[in-house]
Amino acid sequence: MTAPEHLDWLFARQRFGVRPGLDRVHALLAALGRPQDRFRTVLVGGTNGKGSTAATLAAVLTAAGERAGVFTSPHLTRFSERFVVGGQELPAAQVLEALDRVRPLAEAHEASFFEVVTALGCLLFAEAGVRTAVMEVGLGGRLDATNALDPVLSVLTNVGLDHTAILGDTVQAIAAEKVGILRAGRPAVTGVSPELWPVLDGPGADLWAVGRELRWEARPLGWDGHEVGLHTPAGDLSFRTPLLGRHGAGNAALAVAAALRLGIPAEAIRRGTAATRWPGRLERLPWRGGQVLLDGAHNPDGARALARAVSELGTVPLPLIFGAAEDKDLDGVAAALRPLASRVILTRAALSPRAAEPHRLAGLFPGLPLTLTHTPQEALEALAPGTLALACGSLYLVGELRPLLLGEAGEERERWQ
Q1: How confident is the model over 224-268, as pLDDT tens digits?
Q2: Total domain count for the chain?
Q3: Bond before 74 cis per omega within 30 degrees
Q4: What's the angle, vertex CA 394, arms to CA 407 and CA 189, rounded to 5?
Q5: How confident is residue 410, by pLDDT bands cut at 50, 70 and 90?
Q6: Which domain does 97 fall in, by range?
Q7: Predicted pLDDT of residue 21
Q8: Which family does it belong to (predicted)?
Q9: Could you tell me which of 416, 373, 359, 292 has the C-alpha nearest to residue 10?
Q10: Is the predicted pLDDT of residue 3 greater than 80, yes or no?
């Protein structure tokens, strides 16, 4: 098989959907020789903020001289973005060569898309000599493929209402799924709200929670991010992060708390947080004399955090490019975004079968000037030159807009996961 055919095979497995359970991924990892035993694992779960927290922690570990890997999902533009070692995306050829070896074993064990990708990440990290792998949890926690690994530390960013058809329709039910990534007697950090602490305390992890063992405050630095002060049982620490929005500062604080629990020294933490980069999340890119601010906010909590951040930056009202999946809480997302918008340009991610048609989204923005477009390129063309605009609603949409803004080639395969 050629490399493109292997990716075609893998992406086709997305259509089988999410298949919770750990038996298949355990079997696949065993068939690969248990590569996860060759590095230590940190699991990062939660409803929002997982990626930026994982990216910050990996940057800190790298600054401390560790060979760190970070596994995230979904990718924005290239499949190989999911596998980063030492701050560098692994070469596509290396990823595809490993996939060539994983494929027959995955087929034998009927592994799902995300199970294959998780096992592939473990194999790549083991063969790259990674010492610590920061693994972003996919869906939920208890039955997510990443939970087949045995973490030395777990991070649970927050819990909100998302993927309710699978995880449950209350935050308590969702928390009960996500808390599955914690391990009894092992360190963990969390930013979940206090009413959920009893759920998180259940597994018996050595848990630090924001508002209990942890406190933080942030001083905004405009477009440069935040100066953050963190107070922990291990001592106090101040650092800078380029992450925008108060939620970005909070995610960085959780990553730093995790780093302290791993024994990383303060100076390496400061270097790592300052060097953190997380594309597609409050990221500004140039477009025809203006700029487009990209963000993947796709649920009400994420949209509210984005709205606060954009308002604090003093850029509202501004044109909004919006597209979203049909299965999201579109009313909740739109309610948070409406006050930001001077006008709304509706579009859809061309490669996402889950994307809502623009005309289905029109009723979400009453009273605002609307432009309906068929593709992300048309949405960009509808912007007046020299303006700052916000584009959000779907990571898949961001993943299609970003290469257009950068003048790069995009991906041409359907995106489900």
Answers
A1: 999 999 999 999 999 999 999 999 999 999 999 999 999 999 999
A2: 2
A3: yes
A4: 110
A5: confident
A6: 3-274
A7: 81
A8: Belongs to the folylpolyglutamate synthase family.
A9: 416
A10: no
In-domain check, residue 193: yes
Look at residue 232 and tell me if it is in a domain. Answer: yes
Using an 8 Å Cβ cutoff, are 358 and 376 in contact? Answer: no
Same domain, 90 and 233: yes
DSSP 356: P
Q: What's 390's domain CATH number?
A: 3.90.190.20
Are 75 and 211 in the same domain? yes
Q: Do 35 and 151 fall within a single domain?
A: yes
Q: Which residue has the tokens 């030395």?
A: 152
Give the end of a domain, one of 274, 296, 311: 274
Q: φ, ψ for residue 290 (rounded to 5)?
A: -120, -155
Residue 314 makes CB contacts below 8 A (sequence gap 6+) with: none
pLDDT band at 269 (very low <50, low <70, confident <90, very high): very high
pLDDT tier at 396, thresholds 50, 70, 90: very high
CA angle 279, 283, 284 (to 5 degrees): 135
135 lies in the same domain as 251: yes
Sign of the CA dihedral 368, 372, 377, 382?
Answer: negative
- What are the tokens at 203? 């597994």
Residue 380 in domain: yes
Residue 336's nearest CA partner among 391, 384, 283, 299 is: 299
In the listed set 274, 306, 341, which residue is the last one of a domain according to the structure?
Answer: 274
What tokens appear for 273 in the block?
A: 């947080």
Q: Are residues 267 and 292 in the same domain?
A: no
Give the integer Cα–Cα distance in Å for 379 and 132: 41
DSSP string covering 155-207, please?
EE----S-SHHHH-SSHHHHHHHHGGG--TTSEEEE---GGGHHHHHTT--EE
SS (H, E, C) 127-157: HCCCCEEEEECCCCCCCCHHHHCCEEEEEEC
pLDDT digits (tens, 9 = 90+) for 110-168: 999 999 999 999 999 999 999 999 999 998 889 999 999 999 999 999 987 666 556 66
pLDDT score, position 162: 63
* Percent of the chain residues topping a pLDDT of 70: 97
* Distance separating alpha carbons of residues 161 and 58, to the nearest angstrom: 27
Is 36's pLDDT higher than 90? yes
The pLDDT tens digits of the residues spanning 311-321 come to 999 999 999 99
The kind and range of the H/E element at 302 are helix 300-312
Residue 166's pLDDT is what? 62
Residue 416 in any domain: the answer is: no
